[in-house]
Design goal:
The complex is a heterodimer of chains A (280) and B (308). Chain A is mainly alpha-helical and 280 residues long. Helices cover 74% and strands 0% of the residues of chain A. Chain A is elongated. Chain B is built from 13 helices and no strands. In chain B, helix 5 crosses helix 12. The longest helix of chain B has 38 residues. Chain B is mainly alpha-helical and 308 residues long. Helices cover 81% and strands 0% of the residues of chain B. The chains are: A mainly alpha (280), B mainly alpha (308). Chains A and B meet through helix 4, helix 5, helix 8, helix 9 and helix 10 of A and helix 1, helix 6, helix 7, helix 10 and helix 11 of B.
């Protein structure tokens, strides 16, 4: 990356950065896991007395137009955003990698069928299809996740297929075959560990993309729906009151930016780390 | 070259057929009966007899393949049916929206390119300088900002706090500024990062080193590098059209810009399915065509690909 100054320095730097951002990402994950315990107030309790209340001791980030505690809602929103995007990434990763490996390994009909389907899915702009699908299915977290995942798997499928095609001819794969290993065993035990690197880099960068996508759908009112706390829908709900209660928009906005940045940077760090390690 | 174009066009036909099938299928994903939905959208009281008549009128009593074939034949003649809401032709609505979206897209694309090409270049040529670090940091933030958040923040700081611009987009230059910026910021961030990578890759090639050693003026080298990198820059731009089309739905809804995106969102709110269907079909078509043009020009510019 930043020029090889001393032997080993870039590798160490990459390792430290990876460690720091891995810890940060895990921190966010843990926060979303124990969010209900951290909430200062009930995230769904409304109160007419504290409508659009500015930040104070009782409501650390103020209250929204229904008098709900924003701090609690941001914390609970972390749960929705982090869990849903991680789940979509994990699902698309698993499905895409599996299909890609099947296509690359077996070739012939399986290959053309899977790749043609992925070509067609790629012909739709991702967010356009997601908006249409989520809009038609009519909101809800599960529908939003489905809408984002419907095109998401193609990337992994293409990558996995290309990897299998290039690794297929390696001597160790031939050796495994000669040892009498079956296709499934070779795919899972021999090929998968060798091709996981680039796939994981892609998956990590996709976490941010999915988070932005799901928040976008919720913002449009076709993703996660009220009263479930979600950053996109919180921003949408409060944006018309932004003059009266800017904190109601700025708190979830800051949370979104911070989380997406951490996950995006984590993706960069993993890529750099693998690159440096590959060079060494 | 001609064979390549022919092959790509054939591929396009197959892709568009499949896309149209999936788009048609999308309607079948919807819970409930289309005739009931149409009548509800129009505010008609639904009784069994009325629904039966409407089903016959809409041809819903025919088998699925016949319905699809009929819809496809009409789509070929640019007839995408009528809106459930007001009965206007979907094609005409889409055409009107497309014109406004095209204005917004062109403006934000031009703005993004005007910003990204010089900054991407600067960042690559002055690699690891303070300027490079600042640019990379800013693009990193830009990449992590959802476009709806950019719009809301811009609105808050420029319209509410500074009172510089109107909140609701008038259809003039002043009204175009905010939606255009909201679309351009994430795109430029991505462009700058990708342009920087492309130019760095080009700068690392042996011919650049050779030219430097021979004492060729930097100006000439940079011009050549730009020329060679421009082909890949073109691909990056072509591929981003899909993101812009998706982003325009959000931006147009926020700023009430009467384009395709707002049309689609209104259609979703009103459960106006033919319009949603038309929107998906049209945007995919635009996306596929633009990618085809990018690929063909890629082949036309690069002589090595013409031989292969």
């Amino acid at each position: 990356m930043n020029g090889v100054k001393k032997n080993g320095t870039p590798a160490r730097l990459a390792r430290i950065r990876l460690f720091v951002f891995l810890v940060l990402a895990c921190g966010i994950f843990v926060i979303s896991l124990i969010a209900p315990m951290l909430c200062p107030n009930d995230p769904n309790a409304t109160s007419a007395q504290v409508m659009n209340h500015p930040p104070c001791a009782e409501f650390p980030m103020g209250a929204d137009r229904y008098g709900r505690c924003i701090c609690s809602r941001v914390l609970m929103g972390a749960r929705t955003s982090v869990f849903s995007s991680l789940a979509v990434v994990a699902m698309t990763f698993a499905v895409g990698t599996m299909l890609g490996m099947i296509a690359g390994w077996y070739g012939a009909v399986a290959d053309s069928l899977i790749m043609r389907i992925s070509d067609v899915m790629l012909a739709f702009p991702q967010m356009v299809l997601a908006i249409a699908v989520a809009g038609i299915l009519g909101g809800g977290m599960w529908n939003a996740m489905l809408a984002m995942g419907i095109t998401g798997w193609t990337m992994y499928a293409r990558l996995a297929r290309a990897q299998v095609l290039s690794l297929k001819k390696e001597p160790y794969v031939q050796a495994a075959r000669l040892c009498g290993c079956g296709s499934v065993s070779i795919l899972c035990r021999t090929l998968l560990p060798n091709m996981l690197g680039p796939l994981i880099v892609n998956a990590t960068t996709q976490i941010g993309v999915m988070m932005i996508g799901i928040a976008g759908l919720s913002f449009l009112g076709i993703g996660v729906t009220e009263p479930q706390a979600e950053w996109g829908s919180m921003i949408n709900l409060s944006r018309s009151y932004i003059q009266l209660a800017p904190w109601a928009v700025l708190a979830p906005a800051a949370a979104t930016i911070l989380t997406v940045m951490i996950f995006n940077y984590l993706g960069d760090c993993i890529r750099d780390y693998l690159e440096v390690r590959g060079e060494a | 070259m001609r064979a390549y174009i022919g092959k790509r066009l054939l591929h396009l036909v197959w892709i568009m057929l499949a896309v149209s099938f999936l788009t048609f299928l999308l309607m079948y994903l919807t819970p409930g009966d289309a005739a009931t939905k149409k009548l509800t959208a129009q505010g008609v009281a639904v009784s069994e007899e009325v629904v039966q008549n409407a089903r016959a009128d809409m041809g819903l009593d025919r088998p699925f393949p016949v319905q699809y074939a009929d819809w496809l034949l009409h789509a070929f003649r640019l007839d995408l049916g009528c809106s459930y809401k007001d009965g206007f032709s979907v094609s005409k609505k889409l055409w009107k929206g497309l014109k406004n979206t095209a204005v917004l897209m062109t403006a934000s694309m031009l703005l993004s390119l005007a910003v990204s090409i010089p900054l991407g270049f600067l960042s690559a040529l002055k690699k690891d300088s303070p300027a490079d670090h600042v640019i990379r940091f800013l693009t990193f933030i830009g990449n992590s900002l959802p476009n709806f958040l950019i719009s809301v923040l811009l609105m808050y700081f420029l319209c509410v706090k500074a009172r510089l611009l109107p909140v609701v987009a008038d259809r003039n230059i002043r009204g175009l500024i905010l939606p255009c910026l909201s679309l351009a910021i994430p795109i430029s961030s991505r462009f700058i990062r990708q342009f920087r990578a492309e130019i760095l890759e080009e700068l690392g090639k042996p011919y650049v080193k050779g030219a430097l050693i021979r004492g060729v003026k930097r100006r000439f080298i940079i011009r050549n590098v730009f020329h060679n990198a421009s082909i890949r820059i073109l691909t990056v731009v072509g591929l981003s059209v899909g993101t812009v089309l998706g982003g325009s739905v959000v931006i147009e809804t926020i700023f009430r810009w009467p384009g395709l995106g707002k049309l689609a969102m209104d259609a979703i709110t009103n459960r106006d399915y033919p319009v949603i269907q038309g929107f998906v079909l049209l945007t995919s078509f635009i996306y596929v065509i633009i990618n085809l043009i990018t690929d063909i020009s890629y082949h036309a510019i690069d002589p090595r690909l013409q031989e292969g």
